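thoughts on these tokens:
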Amino acid sequence: MICQTTKKGVDCFFMSASGCTYNGGTCYQIVEQCTGCEKIQEFSSGKFCVAYPQPELKWKNGPCNFATHVQRETKQEKIINALKASKRKAAGKM
């Protein structure tokens, strides 16, 4: 349904015929860590995340998984072929 409380005009999963069903009956404004994210929209009632109703909880245990401005590190493990490694070692190249 379309939000009628804080993010007026936005399709919201928590909106029902009886009003907002999210914790406290409203979405919460963004926190400082959200600054720079593409999922922020400004409404007459403030700046809100369109992906999650309470951004503070997303940042509680680390970076928000919806954040578009956070660079995530990826670990690449080098796969070693045991046969080739033993041949290199035997040839004295290690």
Remarks:
- Strands lie at 15-16, 19-20, 40-43, 46-49.
- The helical segments are 55-58, 82-91.
